[in-house]
C-alpha cells in the first residue's frame, strides 16, 4: 500500500496522472454496464431478483393500491390505510445500518412517490391508481418473466438517477478524466460475486487521535484491493477530504440498502477480528443493476 502525500506542490508536466478511480474503490477491474450475454449469466441474473427487497417493495405497494386507493390532498395515504397496511403484516422491516442505528425501509408514501415518478401510478380525483404503463402485478411475481426484469431495471435506474441528482453539488464527483461517477463505479463493483468491500470513515473526515489513526491504517492494510491512502502532509493522518468522500459514498450506499437495491454484510472474515467490525462493509448488488446503470449513463433518466 502506498501512502500518498497530498502536498500543494504541483506535479511535473511529464509526471503520470493519478488514476481517476477513488482510492477507496481499490484496483479491481470494474464490470461493464451490460447484462450478461451467456446462458449461465442470464440464469444467475434472474435467480438473484427474489433475494433483494426492491421487488417486494414494488409488489407490496401495487397490491395495496389495487385498482385505486384514496389519498389526501397532498398525495399521501390516510392514517387509517397505513394502519391497515401494517396490520396486514406488510410493514417495512427494520434493520440496523453500519452505525448501529435503526434504519426503516421506505414508507408507503415514499414508495408511492417513486412509482409516480416512474409513471406507473397517478392521482386522479384524489385516488391513487395504476396507469397503462404499470406492469401487471402477477407478471411482477414471475422472476422468469420479462416484466419482472424490465420493472427491476426501470425501478433501479430511477432510484440511481435520483441519488446522482441529489449529490450534484458535492465536491467529490468524478475527476475530469474519469468515465463515470464514483457511485456508479462502486455499484458495478458491488455486482461482482464478491461484492464491494468498502472501508468505514467518519462523516466529518477527522480521526482525532494518533492511536485511532494507527488502528485505522492497520485495518486498511488488510483490505485486499486498496493500494494507496491519501495523507494530509501536515498531520500524516488520512486526508480529511478523502475520508469525507468515502463517508459520503458509504451513506449513499446505506440509503440504497434501505431501498432494497443492495444488501450489506458487516466486515470480512479474512480481516483480523480486532478491526473487522469497524473497518469495512461488504455490499452486494444484483446483476440487473448493470443495465440500469447503463440506462442512467445514456441519459434515459
Describe what you observe in this structure:
The chain is an alpha+beta fold and 301 residues long. Helix content is 41%, strand content 12%. The chain has eleven helices and ten strands. The strands form four sheets. The chain has a three-stranded antiparallel beta sheet. A hairpin with a 5-residue loop joins strand 3 and strand 4 (102-104). Helix 4 (108-118) packs across helix 6 and helix 6 crosses helix 11 (288-297). The longest helix is centred in the middle third of the chain and has 21 residues, at 146-166. The protein is globular and about 65 Å long. The model is unreliable at 5-19, 168-178 and 271-278 (pLDDT under 50).
Can you give keywords for this protein?
301 residues; alpha+beta; three-stranded antiparallel beta sheet; 41% helix; 12% strand; globular
Amino acid at each position: 500500500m502506498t501512502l500518498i502525500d497530498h502536498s500543494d506542490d504541483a506535479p511535473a508536466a511529464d509526471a503520470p496522472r493519478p488514476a481517476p478511480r477513488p482510492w477507496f474503490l481499490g484496483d479491481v477491474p470494474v464490470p461493464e454496464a451490460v447484462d450478461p450475454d451467456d446462458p449461465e449469466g442470464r440464469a444467475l441474473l434472474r435467480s438473484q431478483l427474489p433475494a433483494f427487497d426492491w421487488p417486494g417493495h414494488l409488489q407490496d405497494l401495487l397490491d395495496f393500491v389495487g385498482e385505486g386507493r384514496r389519498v389526501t390532498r397532498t398525495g399521501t395515504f390516510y392514517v387509517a390505510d397505513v394502519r391497515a397496511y401494517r396490520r396486514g403484516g406488510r410493514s417495512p422491516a427494520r434493520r440496523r445500518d453500519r452505525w448501529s442505528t435503526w434504519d426503516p425501509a421506505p414508507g408507503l408514501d415514499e414508495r408511492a412517490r417513486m412509482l409516480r415518478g416512474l409513471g406507473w401510478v397517478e392521482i386522479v380525483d384524489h385516488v391513487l391508481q395504476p396507469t397503462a404503463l404499470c406492469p401487471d402485478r402477477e407478471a411482477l411475481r414471475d422472476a422468469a418473466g420479462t416484466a419482472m426484469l424490465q420493472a427491476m431495471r426501470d425501478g433501479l435506474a430511477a432510484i440511481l438517477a435520483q441519488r446522482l441528482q441529489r449529490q450534484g453539488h458535492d465536491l467529490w464527483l468524478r475527476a475530469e478524466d474519469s468515465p463515470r461517477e464514483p457511485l456508479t463505479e462502486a455499484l458495478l463493483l458491488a455486482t461482482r460475486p464478491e461484492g464491494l468491500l468498502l472501508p468505514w470513515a467518519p462523516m466529518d473526515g477527522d480521526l482525532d487521535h494518533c492511536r485511532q489513526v494507527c488502528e485505522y491504517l492497520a485495518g486498511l492494510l488488510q483490505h485486499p484491493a486498496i493500494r494507496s491512502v491519501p495523507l494530509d502532509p501536515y498531520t500524516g493522518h488520512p486526508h480529511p477530504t478523502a475520508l469525507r468522500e468515502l463517508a459520503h459514498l458509504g451513506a449513499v450506499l446505506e440509503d440504497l440498502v434501505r431501498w432494497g437495491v443492495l444488501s450489506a454484510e458487516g466486515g470480512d472474515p479474512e480481516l483480523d477480528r480486532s478491526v473487522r467490525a469497524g473497518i469495512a462493509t461488504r455490499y452486494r448488488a444484483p446483476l440487473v443493476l448493470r443495465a440500469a446503470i447503463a440506462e442512467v449513463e445514456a441519459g434515459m433518466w
